[in-house]
Design brief:
Blueprint lengths: L21 H18 L13 E6 L5 H12 L3 E5 L12 H10 L4 E6 L4 H6 L5 E7 L5 H15 L6 E5 L6 H12 L3 E5 L15 E3 L2 H4 L5 E4 L15 H8 L3 H4 L7 E3 L12 H4 L7 H19 L12
Parallel strand pairs: 1-2, 1-3, 3-4, 5-6, 5-8, 6-7, 8-9
């Protein structure tokens, strides 16, 4: 297997899409293409990261993200350790900063961190001397999800520039929506968001996207329709009358999808709530759904991120406390 002889990212961390340049995004996507090929080959493992230690620190439960990061690290030959909230010392009263300092003292090469509070991963990155990848922080960002979504689109359509991408669902509480809006706009796509007014973030204007409150109208002539689940765990108060009414107006079914382009592709980052934001008939359409490809692309993208962030470890000089 021949890998790209590319430079590393400008930052020793991957904390969000906002600070990535178009060339860095293309670098990550191009390298991910190589890992897609490797993962589909007979030999799925390399010793590229042999001797490196990666710690996955997930303060929130996760299936796809944590599993794919673990698989990515192991396929690259790294030693991978998983820490979950059930066994974390945080449950015993340890502060986030003390946890960061403890992990730093173990001399890991890279931390993958998911946390329910926005900005928590940035705080950890400021206190450790290794690289840090944001596995999702509150309603802030989820950069590797946006990268894998972009890879799935680019592989199927051949480009990102000029595509009309409609993102529908709980935009207000979704880190996936924020990272996707940032990445897709950076790469030249036209982005729309669709949700009831209660689920549109107050700062939506900063993203440069079109806002719709009608799903059928919002997906009109769209190339990509990306559905998001209701983030009930982040809601404080009543944002929708009921899930059945929400599906009636904002659930993607054949009738509403008919307004998009005839070959429009369907995406969902998971987990899906069938019958709430998406109908099973649409989600399982083998010709138009990219949902399983998104899962596959997740491993390749996370391999590319781990690869690039560990290429120049000697230059990773984060601020130690």
């Amino acid at each position: 297997m021949t890998f790209l002889k590319a430079s590393s990212l400008a930052s020793p961390h991957l904390l969000g899409i906002e600070n990535l340049t178009p060339s860095e995004i293309n670098l990550l996507l191009d390298l991910s293409e190589h890992y897609v090929d490797m993962n589909r080959s007979g030999s799925k493992k390399t010793d590229l990261l042999r001797g490196r230690t990666i710690i996955n620190v997930f303060f929130e439960s996760s299936t796809r993200t944590r599993t794919s990061f673990e698989l990515a690290g192991k396929r690259l030959g790294a030693d991978v350790i998983n820490i979950s909230p059930e066994v974390s010392a945080v449950r015993k009263g340890e502060t986030l900063l003390d946890t960061a300092l403890t992990l730093n003292a173990m001399h890991a090469d890279l931390l993958v961190v998911r946390h329910p509070e926005s900005g928590a991963v940035q705080l950890i990155a400021e206190k450790v001397s290794c690289s840090v990848v944001n596995g999702g922080d509150g309603a802030h960002e989820h950069p590797t999800q946006a990268l894998l979504d972009a890879l799935a689109i680019r592989r199927r359509v051949g480009r990102l520039h000029g595509l009309v991408v409609a993102i529908s669902g709980d935009i207000a509480h979704s880190r996936v929506a924020r990272s996707n809006m940032l990445l897709l706009k950076t790469m030249g796509a036209d982005v729309r968001v669709i949700a009831p007014p209660t689920l549109i973030p107050a700062d939506i204007d900063r993203y440069g996207v079109e806002v719709f409150h009608d799903l059928a109208e919002g997906v009109r002539d769209a190339d990509i329709v990306m559905m998001l689940r209701l983030q009930q765990e982040r809601m404080r108060g009543s944002f929708i009358p009921s899930t059945s009414e929400y599906f009636h107006f904002f659930g993607l079914d054949r009738a509403k999808l008919a307004n998009a382009k005839p070959d429009a592709l369907i995406m969902h980052p998971g987990p899906m709530n069938r019958g709430v934001e998406i109908d099973s008939d649409v989600a399982d359409d083998i010709n138009r759904s990219l949902i399983q490809e998104q899962v596959e692309m997740g491993v390749a993208v996370r391999m590319a991120c781990l690869d690039l962030l560990t290429r120049d470890l000697s230059n990773n000089t984060g601020d130690e406390a």
